[in-house]
Amino acid sequence: MEYRPYTNTQIKESNNIKTFIRHFPFNTDDIEFKWHKDLYNRSVKIIQSENWLMQHENEIPIELKENHIYYIEKDKWHRIIKGKNDLIVEITEFLL
Questions:
Q1: How many CA atoms lie within 13 A of 13 on its CB side?
Q2: Percent share of the chain, pLDDT over 70
Q3: pTM of the model
Q4: Residue 29: which residues within 8 A CB-CB, separation 6 or more?
Q5: What is the DSSP pairing of strand 78-81 with strand 87-94?
Q6: What pLDDT is stored for residue 66 in this prediction?
Q7: pLDDT computed for residue 1 by the predictor
Q8: End-to-end C-alpha distance for the chain, whole angstroms
């Protein structure tokens, strides 16, 4: 099983949509947050964040602000950059 720098708690899944809470512990080593692509389009609502950033390929990092929703297109390179506390997000994946 491949190590992931987060844990997921599924909230619901129905009609090609899956929603879950993802928790990134602050004590995770920075090296674990790698550039990656997602398999599905997704929206990400920030539940808890202090100085965490998201960076898309060839773009400047942006701060992840609590209660904001960000959209990530499938197959687009991006990464997160660790902040000052745990990062908790609600992710909705569109499985089509």
A1: 8
A2: 98
A3: 0.92
A4: 5
A5: unpaired
A6: 97
A7: 63
A8: 26
Tell me, letter by letter, the H, E, C secondary structure of 14-70: ECCEEEEEEEECCCCCHHHCCCECCCCEEEEEEEECCCCEEEECCCCCEECCCCCEE
Q: What is the set of domains in the chain, with CATH numbers?
A: 7-94 (2.60.120.10)
For 7-51, write each residue's pLDDT tens digit: 899 999 998 999 999 999 999 999 999 999 999 999 999 999 999
Q: Which residues are within 8 A (CB) of 78 and not within 5 positions of it... i.e. 6 or more apart? A: 35, 36, 37, 38, 54, 55, 56, 57, 72
Whether residue 4 is predicted with pLDDT greater than 90 in this model: the reply is no
Give the amino acid at 90: E
Under 8 Å CB-to-CB from 19, ≥6 apart: which residues? 10, 11, 12, 13, 90, 91, 92, 93
In single-letter form, the type of residue at position 29 comes to D
